[in-house]
Amino acid sequence: MRLHFLFIFFLATCLLLCDNYLVRFLESAGLFGKGFRMGKLICDNISEIISDIVADYEKGRPIDKQDIFGQPGRDDVKEIIYKLNRIVYAGYYVDRTYRIYNLSTTIASITEDVAYNLNKQIALALHFDERMKGKSEEEIRTFAEDCTVQFMKKLPEIREYLDTDIEALYVGDPAAESKDAIIIAYPGLFAISVQRYAHVLYQLGIPILPRVMTEIAHSKTGIDINPGATIGKYFFIDHGTGVVVGETTVIGENVKIYQGVTLGALSTRGGRGLIDKKRHPTIEDNVTIYSGASILGGDTVIGEGSVIGGNVFLTKSVPAGTKVHVANQELKFDGKAFEKNTNEDDKQWFYII
């Protein structure tokens, strides 16, 4: 033990000497001059600044919380997403630590790893759950284990849904080279995959963790799908940047949406009073929504087989088979009105992709 301490002390001394030597070398070379040193003004005030910041943490606000080990870890959740994708798309994700010997051993290893780490994150998240108030740590751990098992048992069903999403993307996007390319490269599929994982946790009533998962996908892809949204099979998101799907949105099967689409709330002026209320639209089967369209409101229903054109702003329901589009815009060149071709078909304005 003493030898170990002496070795660490020796190593630290060597690093300090090297650091001092490097500083002197840089100074002599003119690369570490006054511009790299803390000025007198900063030196005279830094202690007071530090004291003020530390004192500001003594006000008992949520922002003052310091229990960094008592909450879900974003990096840990990111790793869980990566490993879930390794389970769901086993042939497309290369493991960083060991070789793939066969499907059974690979799935076994990753599944055990995910179950252990997901259970840990669920247990941490449950400390923020009102249902757990007054519960013992043992009761929380037991509930977390039950939720973990329920989630893991859902993975075959999640894979079934995602297989249909891949099919929808392949059939609906002529630029898709192959289904392999969709799994490897498409941000829409990544965002949908993460939302489907998170939605199961959301249904189990796990706080915080589902939102952390979808916000990781949001930051990676620019696609913001709330974990509460209910989404049917064959869901298609092309391009995807700027897509927003709200918490109480219900989406049927074979629905296609393009970049910049918002399925949102009509108003949030009700604040916390709107919790558990239907705030976002319902999109029935076989609906296509083109880029930049906004469909708002919990009472808004887009009927089966409808087409919503690019840049439409819609706050009321439309019956099945409806085509909604913005009439041809008036274009101007150098301040002069652009003369519309009377033979021009307004239907082209549906298809702004």
The SS-based structural class is: alpha/beta
CATH architecture descriptor of the largest domain: Orthogonal Bundle
Instruction: Tell me the distance between the termini.
Output: 67 Å
CATH hierarchy, class of the largest domain: Mainly Alpha
- What number of domains? 2
Name the poorly predicted regions: none
Q: How many strands, which pairing sense, and closed or not: the largest β-sheet?
A: 5 strands, parallel
SS strand fraction: 5-15%
Strand order of the largest sheet: 1-4-7-10-13
User: How confident is the prediction overall: mean pLDDT?
Assistant: 87
Any idea what the radius of gyration is? 27 Å
List the SSEs and their pairings.
Blueprint: H1 2-28, H2 40-56, H3 74-88, H4 103-126, H5 137-153, H6 155-172, H7 179-185, H8 187-203, H9 209-221, E1 224-225, E2 230-231, E3 236-237, E4 244-245, E5 250-251, E6 256-257, E7 262-264, E8 282-283, E9 288-289, E10 294-296, E11 301-302, E12 307-308, E13 313-314, E14 323-324, E15 332-333, E16 336-337
Parallel strand pairs: 1-4, 2-5, 3-6, 4-7, 5-8, 6-9, 7-10, 8-11, 9-12, 10-13, 12-14
Antiparallel strand pairs: 15-16
Helix pairs in contact: 3-4, 3-9, 4-5, 6-8, 8-9
